Amino acid sequence: MSNESPxxxxxxxNYGSTQHTSGTSQDDGIIDRRPDVTGFIASNAGMxxxxxxxFFFASMNLSVKMLSSLEPPVHAFEVIxxxxxITLICCVIYMIVTGVSDPIIGPRGVRKLLIIRGISGFLGLxxxxxxxxxxxxxDATVLTFLTPLTxxxxxxxxxxxxxxxxxxIAGVFSLIGVVLIARPPFLFNSMPAAIPDVYYxxxxxxxxxxxxxxxxxxxxxxxxxxxxxxxxxxKRAHPMHVMTFFSLWCTIMSSLGMVVFNIPVVYxxxxxxxxLLLMVGVFGFVAQTLLTLGLQRETVSRGSTxxxxxxxxxxxxxxxxxGVVPSxxxxxxxxxxxxxxxxxxxxxxxxxxxxxxxxxx
Length: 361
Known about the structure:
14 helices, 361 residues
């Protein structure tokens, strides 16, 4: 009797089917043990997609940071609308042109999961942006990076996926690496010299900080739901279906937020302003595509570890763009994150009878 979750037991379309080659991927439950590059890429395709997506997420966040430094500043809801609006248009056009069935409502059998993915994804974004009002970037970063751990646990409980001790250890070490890079004030109060000046915020009340932490936790829960639902959907929906629902709900909810809270629309006043806003949309679209492709091919416990690479890309990009020289603690944290990610990538999963049967379904 199979102990797989009913969330991933549904027949229907398989949008991830590919022709089999001698270098078989992990989705087929077969481990290619040849030491060639092709075999390595095939057996780690999902993880490599996820790691690649983090470069574009870091690039997008850098664009947002540059955009927020311009005058007048752009509200987070407007940034979400532009980013997700571009993603929505690109997804729908792609599906119509390539003839993907049910481009708007998605395939039968996974529509509820697609809605959950859209709403939870919006909560993840909204929670992060709201927390940044009263938390430092460092504090918000560390809280956000609880997501890979909670996602791994959710995958183990809800989807009946394996979560090995080595993956858990790699996740904990990666989180330690994030802490060393971000150096949140609430952990480094006894070492004020280790906290960058840019991390300090104007004085906030305990009530405001509590609200911000609560919003961040809502964001973590939302992101966990988004990652887990993508894995539950698997290849029963096209990646563009998944992204369409995410971008649609984000656009709708952010638009309503601007109306309810009477937030004015800021229009482009220079070519640089417009270019940065376009970069946010394009980088976000590419990042979301790669992340969706990766999570459809990888278990959430293993794949979520690759998310930690984002902060490593952020450190490198800040050095290249802003000339920020990372401290010794940042370098140490980066080494820990990279080592943990490489360990997870190079550690092969042993195929199981259930996973093999599921991948062939």
